[in-house]
Write a structure and sequence with these properties.
CATH architecture of the largest domain: Alpha-beta prism
Largest sheet: 4 strands, mixed
Structural class: alpha+beta
Number of domains: 2
Helix content: 25-40%
Number of strands: 23
CATH class of the largest domain: Alpha Beta
Strand order of the largest sheet: 21-22-1-23
Radius of gyration: 21 Å
Strand content: 15-25%
Distance between the termini: 12 Å
């Protein structure tokens, strides 16, 4: 999709229809980094066509990988990659560039890369990544860049102070080619971690979950070629479910792993929506005004995902009653609030919590996306407003949604790209 200047939305109509969901952004990015490990061609099917993927593929090209793309199928041959340093705007733009730290240490035993970029939703320090890799023998030299070497990279016990998704992924990527056995205690439980493990298993790695929820890796095995199909993106699916609930519509999302959305489904049912898992997908019907959520806080999986907090807030703007949402993961997730207030939303923040007082209707407005999920939240808000809204700074949205305009038009929304 080409870069565009904004989105125009004529809101006020419920969403209806059936669509499929793109491959998972949060799963494919570590998997693309894992393509550096081993030999042979990695073919990734159902790879989402989003900006973060394009930037990650450019990083792989600069590292010497040969890449070909045909629609949603990407082929990566890392056999000629001898580089260990990443530079360029791509790495500075996306948070997931930090995953190349573990992958490069695993493949080359050294790595140099810039500090990672991404959305301005909080500090998101990399100390846990560094602590995990140090436990595997990596040594770090950091000034303006991250520099590390691991001539003595060896498997062993790795304990994470918090269940960081990125630190878990980096520890996995470094351990797969390290000598010996690694057991990661305190590992994140997100489905994207299990999808990375499934991809590495298909390549020949010896990797499994422990009974306590940790991850055991018997390193040093040769990794080969693989063809792997990405599962659907649970955050994109959750965004569209919330959009349908907010507009009092009825939709069916195809090929969605229902269990990955248990926390959201429970909240939607509490709000009065009817949600069912059927025929490999999810159906939602919300033909009545939504009810407020008395209290909700974000939490690591299987808790309510922080990536759906802003979209949920937008859906609650017209719910009956008062909702209280507390953000426990990222401290800057409420940057969407001033934009929602432009539409008349009654939201006040109190430290890490936001209180949303439902109102009968939202007014159309000219808006600016503050970050990826905040941009999606503004789309949900605009779909509820009677009239024309315009959202600028939509480059953020393109980082995680393949084509939110196409998808919502498939559900009957009146929405188009401006440019």
């Amino acid at each position: 999709m080409d870069l565009v200047d904004g989105l125009e939305i004529m809101g006020g109509a419920p969403l209806h229809g059936e669509i499929g969901i793109q491959g998972s952004k949060n799963a494919v990015l570590p998997i693309l980094a894992a393509c550096l490990l081993g030999e042979g061609v990695c073919v990734i099917e159902n790879c989402p066509q989003i900006k973060d993927v394009a930037d990650t593929l450019e990083i792989l090209r600069r590292l010497g990988c040969r890449i070909s793309c045909e629609e949603r199928t990407v082929s990566i041959d890392a056999s000629g990659s001898n580089e260990f340093e990443i530079s360029g705007d791509e790495a500075a733009r996306i948070r997931s560039s930090i995953l190349f730290l573990g992958a490069l240490l695993g493949r080359r035993r050294k790595a140099v890369l810039p500090l990672p970029g991404g959305c301005a939703i909080g500090a998101r320090p990399i100390d846990q990544h560094i602590a995990a890799l140090r436990q595997l023998g990596a040594r770090f030299y950091m000034e303006e860049k991250i520099a590390a070497d691991a001539g003595e990279l060896k498997g062993g016990p790795v304990r994470l102070a918090l269940p960081s998704v990125g630190a878990t992924e980096n520890a996995i990527l470094a351990s797969v080619l390290a000598d010996g056995e690694t057991v990661i205690a305190g590992a994140a439980q997100e489905p994207e971690i299990d999808e990375l493990c499934a991809f590495l298993l298909r390549r020949g790695a010896d990797i499994s979950r422990t009974e306590e929820g940790g991850i055991r890796i018997r390193g040093g095995r040769k990794l080969g070629a693989v063809r792997y199909r990405m599962k659907a993106d649970r955050i994109v699916a959750g965004t569209y479910l919330l959009a349908a609930a907010a507009t009092r519509g009825e939709i069916f999302l195809q090929d969605i792993p229902c269990r990955q959305l248990d926390a959201l489904v429970a909240v939607l049912r509490g709000m009065g929506a009817v949600v069912s898992c059927e025929n490999g997908g999810i159906r939602l019907t919300a033909d009545r005004p939504l009810r407020a959520v008395s209290y909700l806080e974000t939490a690591p999986y299987p808790g309510f995902p922080t990536d759906l907090q802003s979209p949920l807030m937008a859906a609650l703007c017209r719910a009956r009653g008062e909702s209280r949402i507390c953000e426990t993961i990222f401290e800057s997730r409420f940057r969407t609030v001033p934009e929602l207030r432009k539409m008349g939303a009654r939201i006040r923040t109190d430290g890490s919590c936001a209180v949303v007082k439902g109102i009968p209707g939202l007014a159309p407005a000219k808006l600016c996306a503050p970050d990826l999920r905040g941009g999606a939240a503004l789309v949900i808000a605009a779909l509820q407003a009677n009239g024309r809204s315009v959202i600028r700074n939509t480059g953020y949205i393109a980082r995680g949604y393949e084509d939110i305009c196409r998808d919502l038009r498939g559900l009957g929304a009146e929405i188009r790209w401006l440019g």
